[in-house]
């Protein structure tokens, strides 16, 4: 078994902070004379973590690309690496910065200048999922079979993910963060987020920009923000004026709540006792952290850096030889994979499969950006497939894909079994306006990203499956 260490970086550009992590990933190539190449990450080590910087902005809507580039070049020097040494990585733009005017151009600029990157502009749902994986919440739910909630509290939002059996089953976001109220060292309020207006009014609290805030008033606000967040996570409240987008809270009650993010990192510190101590970072983050700690939630194992550390090649292989490619778009890169089990019951049930397909596609439509193709549908738990079942599969997949990804013109489907040509033909008949790419004999995992190459042998194409790597 051949082994190789590769250098991977993870870059997180957030609402208030930017940070870089360099890691070494040990890749094992398990190729032999009887099998196709297969690579897997068997070890990962964080070798360098940058300082945490304030995200450089030109104005309220533009990230300063030049200053960001200079910052990264200096951090590369500090880490002792050069651009040509970086073989893999992930650039993730999160929080409010994901909605800035030039967010897309930045991630693509960075990806083109160093290594083979997974690039994602993360909305609130994807940010919550990444944080839950990086904080250890997803792994903890897999180990304990418990329902674990992870609250990632940053500068502007709290991204929440409910995890069960190693998967995220629900996500939502609240306007709760350390920088929603900003102060100078004398305690004068320099900024109040408009997202807090209704919340403060509902709780009979008056705070104005330009006034000197008292410690008692700031403490009351932070206590209410922490309680509102935790009560909604516990499903004690079914609605909140702080919700970023409309959300119907399920009745599931988490058995454990973790807090990550910049506010989570401050939970271990002593309670600030004066306004000056509160405003040490120019906001109310330290006081908000104390009030989360006081209602007995757990600090996550990873807090400020509970984000991706890079992306490594998990599989480099060749698809099955009986594939269906009804598109001229190849090659394609960085398509996120969403797994949908075909049959979890004793017998094939198209209605239950449709429910799973709809739920998975809906979640994916809120997580991933509007690229085309937006995601690859990966079919797992595939039993023997009759002609009738194949037609029903094609009907459900095409209908739910079109319903959830309006405007998409290309559908990518991955199968474990050797049925891609037949399924691809069935899908093409269902939706003639869709370009269909259907591949089989692909080893995949939910949440990975896939690259599709050009044909290498007959109809077979080269495929690379990339997994986001987190410290463990």
What do you see in this structure?
Helices cover 29% and strands 30% of the residues. With 472 residues, the chain is α/β, with parallel strands linked by helices. It has an 8-stranded mixed beta sheet. The chain is globular and about 70 Å long.
Oligomeric state of the chains in view: single chain
Taking pLDDT < 50 over at least 5 consecutive residues as the criterion, the unreliable ranges are 33-38
Strand content bin: 25-35%
Strand order of the largest sheet: 14-21-20-16-17-18-19-15
Largest sheet: 8 strands, mixed
Rg of Cα set: 23 Å
Report how far apart the termini are: 23 Å
Question: What's a concise summary of this model?
Answer:
The protein is of the alpha/beta class.
Which secondary structure elements does this structure contain, and how are they paired or packed?
Layout: E1 2-13, E2 17-29, E3 39-49, E4 53-54, H1 65-79, E5 86-93, H2 103-113, E6 117-121, H3 124-135, H4 137-144, E7 148-153, E8 158-164, E9 167-174, E10 181-183, E11 189-192, H5 197-202, H6 215-233, E12 256-260, H7 261-265, H8 275-278, H9 285-294, E13 298-299, E14 310-318, E15 324-326, E16 332-341, H10 350-367, E17 376-380, H11 387-404, E18 410-415, H12 420-430, E19 435-439, E20 449-457, E21 460-469
Parallel strand pairs: 1-5, 5-6, 7-12, 12-13, 16-17, 17-18, 18-19
Antiparallel strand pairs: 1-2, 2-3, 2-4, 7-8, 8-9, 10-11, 14-21, 15-19, 16-20, 20-21
Helix pairs in contact: 6-9, 10-11, 11-12
